[in-house]
Amino acid sequence: MKLSRSREETLDLPGYLAGQPLRTDGTLEVFNPFSGALVGTVSLAGRDHLDRACEEALAWKGSLTRYQRHEVLLKARSLLQQRAEEFALLVTRESGLCLRDTTYEVGRALDVLQCAAVEALKDEGQVFSGDVSAHGKARKIFTLREPVPLVGAIAPFNHPLNQVVHKIAPAVAAGAPLILKPSEKTPLAAIRFAELLYQAGLPGPMLSVLLGSVGEFAEPLVLHDRIEAVTFTGSGAVGRRLAAIAGYKKLCLELGGNSPLLILEDADLELAAGLAAEGCYRNSGQRCTAVKRLLVHERVLEPFTRLLVEKTGEYRAGDPEEWTTRVGTVIDEAAVVGLERRVEEAVEAGARVLRGGRRKGALMEPTVVADVPRTCKMVVNESFGPLAPILAIRDLEDGIDLANATAYGLSAGVVTRDIQAAIRAVKGIRTGTVNVNQVPGYRIESTPFGGVKDSGLGIKEGVIEAMKFMSTVKTFSLPW
Ligand code: NAP
Questions:
Q1: Quick check: is 1 in a domain?
Q2: In this structure, is residue 448 part of a structural domain?
Q3: Which of 105, 161, 233 to mutate to test the pocket of ligand 1 (most atoms within 8 A of CB)?
Q4: Which among 52, 142, 440, 476 could bridge 259 via Cys, Cβ 3.0 to 4.6 Å?
């Protein structure tokens, strides 16, 4: 079944500067990676608009009570729920991700809003008694959190809606004004989502969503002296650059991954093959936590590989708007060409393609590659697409060493029935998350999320941690 809306519709969207539509002479065109059709245009903002957005946010002297923030988030959630199909279709058209994936993404965005609405109501202050040591006084010491005056946020293309909601919803919950720059590849859902928030009652100065070039807008946003905190999600290369130039500023960097799934000798292999396929192929393999390396105990290599090849047959790549499609496109043809090159290079080094490997336009078939040498770019770097590279491991320790052998440290999974082995893996793998008998990317929206090494500085996201990032603790004391 296809959604019936006309393919001809092209959106003509403004940016939003402090709640007001911004129309400029410069526009960016967004094309459907599958069909090549023009999906929409967006007005481009420049340095002057950034300055104005900062001024208007900081000049605004209003504030919302916890209850008002809670209400705005719930109202926006309800509006998004009413238009869930439309948002899923829009994300599909701008990103090429299949409707199954984008429908799931909208559901996750609803969860983020619900979680943020709940967190907005909670008081996270602490109380300490002063008279607890010989030097103490009869006082009480309290903490409260105050919103950062202005936050800058930059989002990637791979979850065009949910990445954006993970920036905006915690800011609203914490009461911090925010200026967001979405990805130029997928800005449409972000702008539409901002409209829902204004409709839900969010005061305009609390949110600007503006698209501008890296030189004119994105880097100036990071460098801007009125913006005290910047939250960035994207590639390691850009994250490192931002860390180098940002200067005296709070910085949250959520960067790339190269997540391993360890499949141990005693694993339930049906479960392992299912997790491997979901982990490698969902969202066309374009999740920071997607499984990028299958590290399989040599004694179960053959049956696991057989099961995975079979399972891969269920993941049909095709028209993203067909419900039967399990894998849509990657973001563009250049990305597919890069993936294809990585597969060829692995094959030249001795790997074997067991299933998939073909491409058409921006579509890449889910591809199982066996006997992948440990030094291939496909598994040393992040290969952002539906590839399933299999590497043999001798034992758990070898698996942990190999899991740790890349520059990344975002997430990992281990499939085993042995609790001791699971604990050893949790302790031994240096990543932000380790999931047992689950894909590396499993989480709920309130749990701390984020990586170490080249995947991030260890400053977490997830609604609760993001609210902490977007606020500062004030300590005060009273005589008691
Ligand atoms: P990207 O190329 O780093 O771009 C991310 C964002 O940064 C885009 O909005 C981009 O703008 C902007 N940007 C690029 N250069 C910039 C600069 N010099 N200064 C300021 N902003 C700049 O990443 P991507 O290709 O969109 O996203 C995929 C990457 O994100 C993958 O590596 C993935 O693993 C990672 N990711 C990480 C997480 C996580 O939570 N750890 C989650 C999702 C994705 P333009 O679009 O205008 O270029």
A1: no
A2: no
A3: 233
A4: 440
Asked whether residue 116 falls in the same domain as residue 196, the answer is yes
CA–centroid distance, residue 234 to ligand 1 (Å): 3
> pLDDT tens-digit profile of 222-250?
999 999 999 999 999 999 999 999 999 99
Residue 409 and residue 299 share a domain? yes
pLDDT, the chain, mean: 97
Q: Which atom belonging to ligand 1 lies closest to the Cα atom of 184?
A: 46
158 lines ligand 1 (CB under 6 A): yes
User: Structure tokens of 273?
Assistant: 């093959």
Strands 20-22 and 15-17, sheet pairing: antiparallel
Closest CA to 172 of 108, 213, 118: 118
- Domain shared by 467 and 420, yes or no: no
Look up residue 115 and give its two tokens. Answer: 């979680």
Q: DSSP H helical segments within 41-143, as ranges?
A: 47-59, 66-82, 84-95, 99-120
In a domain, residue 239? The reply is yes
Active site residue 288: yes
pLDDT average, residue stretch 23-47: 98
Q: Please give the backbone phi and psi of residue 139, each rounded to the nearest 5 degrees, phi first.
A: -135, 165
pLDDT greater than 70 at residue 1: no
Query: Can 85 be counted among the known catalytic residues?
Result: no
Ligand 1 pocket mutation pick from 157, 240, 252, 449 by most atoms within 8 angstroms of CB: 157
Look up residue 233 and give its two tokens. Answer: 């999600």
Over residues 250-266, the mean pLDDT reads 98
Q: What are phi and psi of 310, to 5 degrees?
A: -60, -50
Q: Is 408 in the pocket of ligand 1 (CB under 6 A)?
A: no
Q: Which of 56, 219, 254, 321 is catalytic?
A: 254
Residue 274 and residue 197 share a domain: no
Q: Classify residue 6: in a domain, yes or no.
A: no
What is the distance between the alpha carbons of residues 111 and 95, in angstroms, rounded to a whole number? 21
Residue 328, helix vs strand vs coil = coil
Q: What is the mean pLDDT of residues 53-61?
A: 97
Q: Is the Cβ–Cβ distance between 361 and 34 less than 8 Å?
A: yes
Is the CB–ligand 1 distance for residue 446 below 6 Å? no
Distance in angstroms (rounded) separating the CA atoms of residues 29 and 473: 42
> Tokens in use for 455?
């995947």
Sheet hosting strand 139-147, strand order edge to edge:
127-129, 139-147, 471-479
- Could you read off the pLDDT of 394-434 as tens digits, one per residue? 999 999 999 999 999 999 999 999 999 999 999 999 999 99
